[in-house]
Write a structure and sequence with these properties.
This protein is of the alpha+beta class. About 40% of the residues lie in helices and about 20% in strands. Helix 5 (about 100-115) runs antiparallel to helix 6 (about 145-155), helix 11 (about 230-240) crosses helix 12 (about 240-250) and helix 13 (about 285-305) crosses helix 14. The structure holds a DNA duplex (18 and 18 nucleotides).
Length: about 400
DNA sequence: TCTGGGGTCCTAGGACCC
DNA sequence: TCTGGGGTCCTAGGACCC
């Protein structure tokens, strides 16, 4: 989806069309005052001059999306708000409306599934579609179907998207970047040398800043240069798995299927404080935040019907260094109190002399709550038969089952 | 006035078991 | 007269993605 979060706000405030607008996180809702003063309904009609500007922003947020007009100023995703404010002080800044984002996310995916059912979720604003067997999918090298999808998404959401069509996910992802916004790009196997090889390695989904820097140090800057390396040489420098993957990627080879359903591995909640907190001096505040995070994770698990076995905490010191601690329970849980207690034990294993800027809680090794319940019953009956030692059922399981 | 939040996957070491 | 070869589970950190 093109500039997804920003485009959603533009539907609500059409008067912002063409202007530099950034959508930013941080819990300081810059438009709270506006909302209070005018009410949600009236906001649509407020004059431009009343919208909050980047230069007035206070807080530690980053930009999640910038409109194309804002990008002209060098402002982009993941950039700190304060830095962006220097580049484009008069850009209008709005907070992410998560409910609205989820709503449009569901809507555009539904529009796609109506046409092509094999869809892999890649986050709120991105999907892979396997349209090998969709009627008409092969016409025009896929262009007809891509156009149909764009039209249908626009009709149902008012939003535009960019589509890359290719023989596999790796190339399709790169192709989708070629014609933004509202573009279609078709890349066939024969186009590898002309369209893919000249690109910087960083364009490969999976090559991040670290790998890119390492490649650059080895004097490899383009995908073509990567493809020219021996498989053995890449393995020597990047290890068996990564080296082999890099070689395949550079040659446009990717056999990964489009995965239409997958189970979550972990659920987490984390927060960056408005100011750095000290474990001792700000003990009360920190404790309250910690408990709230545990409560929210528990809520998420219960709402989605999962239980987990590994409780983890994450914290980030004022120097931005992060540490994590894990603790695995004997039983699955989704109970806030159990999570809080276990996370508390994990927190005790971490040095707390330095100030903290972030605290997070995670629950991993997830299982569907109903499967865990079935498992519980099974082991209970085994116990009754006397084949296994009796295991006490911890109190939080009562609540669950 | 640096640097969000929610995820996945990989690696590597150690404990422990047979 | 020095110490195997699996396998699994757990933990910590880090790269990367949207």
């Amino acid at each position: 989806m093109d500039a997804f979060f920003a485009s959603i706000e533009l539907l609500r405030y059409p008067q912002l069309k063409g202007l530099p607008v950034v959508i930013g996180g941080g819990r300081r809702r810059v438009d709270e005052a506006l909302l209070e003063a005018q009410g949600e309904r009236a906001l649509r009609f407020i004059p431009l001059a009343d919208f909050p500007r980047l230069k007035d922003y206070v807080g530690r947020g980053v930009i999640t999306t910038a409109t194309y007009a804002a990008r002209q100023f060098g402002v982009g995703s993941a950039m700190g708000m304060m830095k962006a404010a220097k580049l484009c002080p008069d850009a209008i800044v709005l907070p992410v409306d998560f409910d609205e984002v989820r709503k449009y996310s569901r809507a555009f995916k539904e529009a796609i599934r109506d046409v092509a059912p094999l869809v892999e979720d890649r986050g709120v604003d991105e999907v892979y579609i396997d349209f090998t067997d969709v009627p008409g999918g092969q016409r025009d090298g896929g262009r007809s179907l891509a156009r149909l999808l764009q039209r249908s998404i626009l009709e149902k959401t008012g939003l535009t998207c960019s589509i890359g069509v290719a023989p596999n996910k790796l190339i399709a992802k790169m192709a989708s970047e070629f014609n933004k916004p509202n573009g279609i790009s078709i890349v066939q196997e024969a186009d590898l040398q002309t369209l893919i090889w000249p690109l910087p390695c960083r364009k490969i989904n999976g090559i991040g800043p670290k790998s890119d820097a390492k490649l650059a140090a080895l004097n490899i800057h383009t995908i073509g240069e990567m493809a020219a390396q021996d498989l053995g040489w890449l393995i020597d420098h990047f290890g068996q798995a990564t080296g082999a993957w890099m070689h395949d990627a550079a040659w446009g080879r990717d056999m990964r299927p489009v995965v239409t359903d997958s189970e979550p591995v972990s659920m987490s909640r984390e927060t960056t404080f408005e100011r750095d907190l000290h474990a001792v001096r700000d003990k009360t505040e920190l404790g309250a935040v910690f408990t709230r995070l545990c409560g929210r994770v528990a809520e998420d698990l219960q709402r989605k019907g999962y239980v987990g076995k590994t409780i983890g905490i994450k914290l980030r010191y004022d120097n931005f260094q992060s540490v994590t601690r894990d603790q695995t329970l004997a039983h699955f849980t989704a109970d806030a109190t159990t999570i809080r207690q276990t996370a508390g034990l994990a927190l005790k294993r971490v040095p707390l002399t330095q100030k903290l800027r972030l605290l997070g809680v995670r629950v991993g090794t997830l299982m569907k709550a109903e499967d865990a319940a079935a498992l519980q019953k099974l082991s209970a009956s085994t116990n009754a038969a006397g084949t296994t030692a009796e295991e006490p059922v911890p109190p939080y399981m009562d609540q669950l089952f």
